[in-house]
Structure formats: C-alpha cells, structure tokens
Design brief:
There is one protein chain. Strand 4 and strand 5 form a beta hairpin. The chain has 15 helices and eight strands. The protein has a single domain, classed as 3-Layer(aba) Sandwich (Rossmann fold), CATH 3.40.50.300. With 304 residues, it is α/β, with parallel strands linked by helices. Bound molecules: 3'-phosphate-adenosine-5'-phosphate sulfate (PPS). The site of 3'-phosphate-adenosine-5'-phosphate sulfate has 21 residues, from helix 3, helix 8 and helix 14.
Length: 304
C-alpha cells in the first residue's frame, strides 16, 4: 500500500542556493513566472520581521481607516503570500492571479529570487527589517508552531542553523543586505521594526508619504490603534487564528507572541551572544546597514 508522506515537517529544499519549503521548490516555475502589475504594492520581509504588522497598516491605509472593512477577511487572504504553495491548502500565485487590483502582495523571498516581472512593472515595495537576534528568537518559536518548517531542535541547534542561513528563506544577513542594495533600482521604502516600535506615528507618516496618501488625524489615530500589538493580538483577522491548527498550532506558541524588541536577551546565553556578535560583525562589515538590538525604555511611545 502506498504511504502518503505528510506535507508537514519535511526538509527544506534548495532553490538557487536558498532553502525553501519542499512544495515551493516543486512549484518554483509557477513562482518564477508570477505576473506583477504596476499598481501592486509588494511587502517584502525576512520572516518574523513585522510582515503582518505592516500588512495591516497598509490595508488600513488602502481602506481609509475603515476597521470593519479590514476585518473582511484574514490577513493571509487580504495580503496573499505570493510564493507560498502548499498542495491542497494554499497557492499564493493563483490567489493573486484572481485578485482585482490594486493588490497587496507578501513575499519572504531574498531579492535575487524575486520574479523578474516585479522589476519590469516598477511597482512600489515596502521592506521591513528587524534585528537578527530578535528575528532568530521569534523564528525559533514560529518553527515550533508552524508545521511547514522542519523540527527546529533545541534553541542552540536552531541558532546555529540561523547563523549558517540553513533556515527557510535562507540567510538573514544576505536578505537584509540584498534588499538594502535594491533600493537603488526600485521604488522601495526600507523600514525597521525597531523604528516602528519606537515611534509608530512617525513611521506611519513615512508610509503615507511613500504611498502618496493623505489622511485625516482621526484616521491616523484609528490606524495606530487598530495596528497596535494589543489590538492585532485579539483580532482574529490579523492574529492567524483563522488558519487551520494543522498548519499553525497556537497552543505551542502564539503567532502574536510578544511583539517587543530585545526579547533575545531572555534566550541568548553570554557565550552564544559573544559568538553571534563576532560572526555578525564579519558578515555585516561590508554594509552600511545599522540595526538596533533594543530600544531604550525612555524612547518607547505612550500607549495609543
Ligand atoms: S511572518 O510569519 O514571517 O509573516 O511573521 P511576521 O508578521 O513577519 O512577524 C511576526 C512577529 O511580529 C510581531 N508583531 C508585532 N509586533 C509589534 N506590533 C504589532 N502590531 C505586531 N504584529 C505582529 C509578532 O508578535 C512576531 O514577533 P514575536 O517577537 O514572535 O512576538
């Protein structure tokens, strides 16, 4: 009798040097030939860097701050994940092909794997980057709850894989640097999660300016409130609770976990931190990119 292999917890598969889910690798031709449109907005991130947060912000902007309208569907349907193809469960390419314009498109692809139609269509891109240590911690918890990933092993084992770029979507270092360079040839706004935490209003204004949208102060306040961690955590259309438990098990670790900067301090040992810093300095020395590993408490905004 034929034994059907589970779609979950399978090894990652190399696509042009980048480890991806096996099912994305199998259907890579579909992803590669994805047709971008000039009025698409691409939201590009390394995993766990604030994708859902910026997606909710942009959807609110597109809907003039109408909260009910933004609750029309789950975030993964309002902003489809382009390259995510899981047989019988999701196909971001097909989902987006059927979607009317203007579309919001999510990708975790490193810039060198982006389908060429994006550059040709010259559509706008928002990239959000988050410091590597908090990403590693968030990713470790996500690996445990989101079953498309291989088993993460212990924290020490996962951290090792993260540093070597042997995790889904590859090296964090190459990802943030690659997209940083790309801002020279694309209409691209490069944001930092830490800046969004420190001053969400300032960063929202930058997004509005980039999208050439003007909204009233009342709408600004509504967007800030609706997209705060506390609101998004309890909103079923943004907290990923509408996804099947087979795919994501929130009882293992919730998708909306902590939403803070500096949580890495609760996970890295002194020795891990020293090794990480040494390796980090080497990998990032060629770049002008600068990350903040935490935000001083004094800089944190009042609650909205
Ligand atoms: S994914 O799966 O890659 O699309 O995940 P992503 O949305 O990029 O990242 C999830 C982390 O972002 C945190 N998050 C937020 N932080 C602050 N404010 C808001 N509104 C917000 N929404 C999501 C989420 O909690 C994950 O981080 P951790 O550190 O795990 O809590």
């Amino acid at each position: 009798m034929e034994v059907k292999e589970s779609i979950f917890r399978r090894q990652l598969v190399d696509v042009h040097g980048v480890p991806l889910f096996w099912s994305i690798a199998e259907e890579w031709a579909q992803v590669e030939t994805f047709q971008a449109r000039p009025d698409d907005l691409l939201i590009a991130t390394y995993p766990k860097s604030g994708t859902t947060w910026i997606s909710e912000i942009v959807d609110m902007i597109y809907n003039d701050g109408n909260v009910e309208q933004c609750k029309r569907d789950a975030i993964f349907n309002r902003v489809p994940f382009m390259e995510l193809i899981i047989p019988g469960m999701s196909n971001g390419v097909e989902q987006l092909d059927m979607m009317p314009s203007p579309r919001l498109v999510k990708t975790h692809l490193p810039v060198q794997l982006l389908p060429e139609s994006f550059e040709k269509s010259n559509c706008k891109t928002i990239y959000v980057a988050r410091n590597a240590k908090d990403v590693a911690v968030s990713y470790y918890h996500f690996y445990q709850m989101a079953k498309m990933h291989p088993e993460p092993g212990t924290w020490a084992e996962f951290l090792e894989k993260f540093v070597e770029g042997k995790v889904a979507f590859g090296s964090w270092y190459d990802h943030v640097k690659g997209w940083w360079e790309k801002r020279r040839n694309l209409p691209l706004l490069y944001l930092f999660y830490e800046d969004m935490k420190e001053d969400p209003r300032r960063e929202l204004q930058r997004v509005l300016q980039f999208l050439e949208k003007e909204v009233t102060e009342e709408i600004v306040q509504r967007i800030l409130h609706h997209t705060s961690f506390q609101e998004m955590q309890k909103n079923p259309t943004s907290n990923y609770k509408m996804i099947s438990t087979a795919e994501m098990d929130h009882s293992v670790s919730p998708f909306m976990r902590k939403g803070i900067s500096g949580d890495w301090k609760n996970h890295f040992t002194v020795a891990q931190n020293e090794r990480f810093d040494e390796d980090y300095a080497e990998k990032m020395k060629s770049s002008t990119l600068a990350f903040r590993m935490e935000i001083p408490e004094a800089n944190m905004p009042e609650k909205t």
